[in-house]
Amino acid sequence: AVTRQKIAVVRSVATKLHAAEEAIDNAIIKLAALNGELPMARLEAGLSATVCQDAFDRSAQALSALVQCRRETVGAHAALHATQRDMGLGAHAMGDGWKIFQTDETPPLTLVQSEAA
């Protein structure tokens, strides 16, 4: 039987997970904007292409690291979903936005709108 305590625990974890995912996406957006701004700033300032190459490299590496961070967080999300299912809470969508669920009972790519936690 699904207990209220299990649901409360899963919702608490889901809230923190979704907040982390959103923060990572926002950081990617901001760093991508910086990466786009750097070459424009160089051109507008009339600087040689050799100027600030180290800054370009480091900013691009930082963006790549954030994308890897996002990949790992999404992996953690999938692992937590498996745990949620193992707890008997597989039918409870805890997140925000649209999810794509594939099960043996449903055709592939069935969209299910989840409830806000």
Give an overview of the whole structure.
The protein has helices at residues 4-45, 53-86, and strands spanning 98-101, 110-113. With 117 residues, the protein is mainly alpha-helical. It has a two-stranded antiparallel ribbon. It starts with a helix and ends with a strand.
Task: Detail the topology: elements first, then pairings.
Layout: H1 4-45, H2 53-86, E1 98-101, E2 110-113
Antiparallel strand pairs: 1-2
Helix pairs in contact: 1-2
Concise description?
This protein has 117 residues and is mainly alpha-helical.
- Uncertain ranges: none
% residues in beta strands: 5-15%
- Spell out the helices and strands N to C: HHEE
Number of DSSP strand runs: 2
Record the strand order, biggest sheet.
1-2
- Main beta-sheet annotation: 2 strands, antiparallel
Shape: rod-shaped
Percent in helix: 55-70%
Indicate the structural class. Answer: mainly alpha
Please report the number of helical segments.
2
The rounded distance between the terminal residues' Cα atoms is 20 Å
Q: Quick check: average pLDDT? A: 84
Q: For the CA atoms, what is the radius of gyration?
A: 20 Å
Characteristic key phrases:
single chain; 117 residues; mainly alpha; two-stranded antiparallel ribbon; 2 helices; 2 strands; rod-shaped
